[in-house]
Amino acid sequence: xxxxxxxxxxxxxxxxxxxxxxxxxxxxxxxxxxxxxxxxxxxxxxxxxxxx
Length: 52
What we know:
By secondary structure, the chain is mostly helical. The protein has two helices and no strands. It has one domain (9-51).
């Protein structure tokens, strides 16, 4: 941020940086592999639901 920026411009720039970082972290989380343990738990829940 430059010293000549107004308060609203600084806030807008800061908000844009926050938005970009949150989006990057969210996108990275979506690409992560689901752990095998969670997949096993989901399979157990499905079996329990279909068994009722």
